[in-house]
Amino acid sequence: MKLTYSMQLSKLLLAIFVGGLSTQLSASEKVSSLKSITVTATREAEEVSKQALSIAKKSAEEVALDQVMFQKDLLNSIAGT
Length: 81
What we know:
Blueprint: H1 5-29, H2 60-66, H3 71-76
């Protein structure tokens, strides 16, 4: 039996729909979350709130003096970024 294009398309769409339903059902059965980890240079466990951070600020005048065209250029002009 030769299938027409529309019959083949209908069967394909049905297979995708049924496959999508089974994926949704199996995904809702078990929900797990991963524990976040932070890797430091010293390989020691450390809270994120206690890690050293670098915060930089540029005034509008400094940005104008830099004459940046793109945001990446502005970030490149700040040490440590």
